[in-house]
Structures are given as C-alpha cells and as structure tokens.
C-alpha cells in the first residue's frame, strides 16, 4: 500500500472524527484540533516571525560576505601589484655584488686577527 501524503492523511483523520457526530461539539473540536496540531507538528513549520528574523539575518550575512569578497579582491590586487614591482630588476648600487658594503670597508683594510 502506497504511503499517503500528509494532507490526505489529515483529511482522512478529520473525516473519521466527523463520523462520530453524535459526540458533543466541544469533544469534536478538541479531536479535530489534536489531529490538525499533530499534522502541523509533523510538517516542521516555522512561525512567520521566525522566518522574518532568519531572512533578516541571511540578508545581513550576504551583505557582509559581499563586503569581505570585495576587500579580499582589493588585497589580492594590491599584493599582485607589489609582487610585480618586486619582480622588476633594479640597478641600485647596493645590489651590485662588486661594491663592498660600508660595514665591510670600515676596518680600514685590516683583517681581524
């Protein structure tokens, strides 16, 4: 036997309750409320207030993620620019291997003994 969808089961249960129409109206109402409440509990519904709160949190989170993505892109671009500047060869006198540094020449030509 195929499993019935939740609304079909709900309709069947309400119909079963209504067949006992000889019961007092309060008892019928309580029985139907129990059936409907049980069906809603199984559906795992959330209140509109909870839904609105979660949507607000989601929108703020999305905005923050977009801001962080922009910030990361800017930092990556700055890092790429800095790396390309460092990769360019420079002809400064300090970079030449033949020229002695001031610390090496400070001894007046004498070696350490």
From TrEMBL:
<keyword id="KW-0963">Cytoplasm</keyword>
<feature type="compositionally biased region" description="Low complexity">
    <location>
        <begin position="84"/>
        <end position="98"/>
    </location>
</feature>
<dbReference type="Pfam" id="PF04380">
    <property type="entry name" value="BMFP"/>
</dbReference>
<comment type="pathway">
    <text>Cofactor biosynthesis; ubiquinone biosynthesis.</text>
</comment>
<comment type="function">
    <text>Required for efficient ubiquinone (coenzyme Q) biosynthesis. UbiK is probably an accessory factor of Ubi enzymes and facilitates ubiquinone biosynthesis by acting as an assembly factor, a targeting factor, or both.</text>
</comment>
<comment type="similarity">
    <text>Belongs to the UbiK family.</text>
</comment>
<feature type="region of interest" description="Disordered">
    <location>
        <begin position="79"/>
        <end position="113"/>
    </location>
</feature>
<keyword id="KW-0831">Ubiquinone biosynthesis</keyword>
<dbReference type="InterPro" id="IPR007475">
    <property type="entry name" value="UbiK"/>
</dbReference>
<protein>
    <recommendedName>
        <fullName>Ubiquinone biosynthesis accessory factor UbiK</fullName>
    </recommendedName>
</protein>
